[in-house]
Design goal:
Layout (H helix, E strand, L loop, with lengths): L3 E12 L2 E12 L3 E5 L6 H9 L6 E6 L2 E3 L3 H5 L2 E4 L11 H10 L5 H15 L14 H12 L6 E5 L7 H16 L3 E6 L2 H7 L2 E6 L2 E6 L1 H8 L3 E7 L2 H12 L2 E5 L2 E6 L2 H8 L5 E7 L2 H9 L6
Parallel strand pairs: 3-8, 3-9, 6-7, 7-8
Antiparallel strand pairs: 1-2, 1-4, 4-5, 9-10, 11-13, 11-14, 12-13
Helix pairs in contact: 3-4, 4-5, 8-11
Length: 305
Amino acid sequence: MSVTLLSLRGVRKAYGGNEVVCGVDLELIAGECFGLLGPNGAGKTTTLRLALGLTDPDVGEISLLGYTVPRRAREARARVGVVPQTDNLDPDFTVFENLLVYGRYFGLRDADIAARIPPLLEFAGLEARAAARIQTLSGGMKRRLSLARALVNDPDLIFLDEPTTGLDPQARHLIWERLKRLVAEGKTILLTTHFMDEAERLCRRVAVMDRGRIIAEGSPQQLILRYIEPQVVEIHGDGAESWAREHGRVLCERCEQAGETVFCYTRDGDRVLVTLDGREELRYLHRRANLEDVFLKLTGRDLRD
């Protein structure tokens, strides 16, 4: 039997007459990693703040771990871990002290926190850096410490707001491995990210949010099958635009151009490749459709600031 840890029903929030969350419905099930995706300004961070009781909704109902939010948000947050979008580690403390002081916020005894810290440092790969100052840590180390800190109260639900932004590929992969480990141990994760490959790797279900509304929801594979042709050919080079004019409508179910790249969405990639053979002025990549294709189709290719 599935257990609902977080429920939002008809939640709305406006600032100065501008509605940034517009009737959102969400349900998070125990033991899953759920991804909340969307461009900048879509309302993701505000939705997280509403779910945590840090912002009051104008309309709607929120339940977090069985508690009504925001009325009983403090009680709910005692069983939640949060990794914010930007690191807010205390630079005046060592790695060990950051974990110790944070544990005190939850009313834990120092002896209990101290017993939890060694496995948390092992989890974060920071066993040798317990006495290190925050300024001496790399960006990847800081993110791993922020994740370990979010686990100090042994939470049932973990909120992760863009946890790998700004990290190099090695650090991202290590964070992914740690998040998979948490889910395997029975933890539940709500993740926001701009990296579609991250969501596709980690999340059992995702919701795409745009302009304050949920516009699609399902597993990554369900969304790919529902919204995108199965194959994509990306065509680059000086002749890409002329190729699109000549072949795009005939060979592609959908053909889009972004900068110098033509994206041909098709059910028969081999027919497209025949027309590219011998065209030395063109470079191309033939691949399967992915979650990023879904995201761009639903939210558009225009830059959001």
